[in-house]
Recover the amino acids of this structure.
């Protein structure tokens, strides 16, 4: 039986998924020739369902099929949906993330909403690091030194700044420090050098 968008959305909307069910669903999608078209259709719709479709695309589809979906959803106005798509894109194809450089820079700005600012700034910083955006160093310094910023934004800016300025020092720091931000920066650097 052919996979339908309604079937994928029903799976997403279930209150809970037992262990192993998502993995089995992803395996089924990998075997379905129309999976990319179905996930693309869902990802064009508004709401959190599109974020989930992008995430599943990152797990089930080859990078060449998942990237267009991830790029579209990464431009979502919903900050959480956008963040999820960006993180999946950075995992699947960090080189493709270069297309989002202007967006990453804009994400460092102020939207007026505390939660949206924090999520956007963190996601934008990780994106800028992934594409090696040395032109963001001054903005990282400003975020790091701005005491009005949430501590996690300041710590992430510090880790990203070091990784942009001196990748080797950032990797050495990751060997000695357990900070989640230092570790994330090192993970992105390693993936960037592998790409």
């Amino acid at each position: 039986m052919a996979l339908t968008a309604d079937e994928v959305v029903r799976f997403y909307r279930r209150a809970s998924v037992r262990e192993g069910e998502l993995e089995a669903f992803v395996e089924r999608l990998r075997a379905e020739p129309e999976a990319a078209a179905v996930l693309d259709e869902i990802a064009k719709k508004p709401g959190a369902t599109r974020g989930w479709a992008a995430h599943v695309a990152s797990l089930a589809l080859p990078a060449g099929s998942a990237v267009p979906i991830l790029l579209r959803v990464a431009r979502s106005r919903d900050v959480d949906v956008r963040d999820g798509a960006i993180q999946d894109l950075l995992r699947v194809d960090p080189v493709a993330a270069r297309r989002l450089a202007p967006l990453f820079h804009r994400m460092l700005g102020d939207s007026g909403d505390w939660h949206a600012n924090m999520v956007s700034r963190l996601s934008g910083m990780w994106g800028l690091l992934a594409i090696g955006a040395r032109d963001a160093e001054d903005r990282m310094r400003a975020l790091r030194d701005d005491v009005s910023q949430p501590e996690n934004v300041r710590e992430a800016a510090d880790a990203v700044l070091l990784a942009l300025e001196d990748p080797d020092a950032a990797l050495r720091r990751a060997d000695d420090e357990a900070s989640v931000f230092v570790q994330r920066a090192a993970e992105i650097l390693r993936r960037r050098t592998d790409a």
User: Anything to note?
Assistant: The CA atoms of residues 83 and 123 lie 6 Å apart. The two ends are 37 Å apart (CA to CA). Residues 114-130 form the longest helix (17 residues).
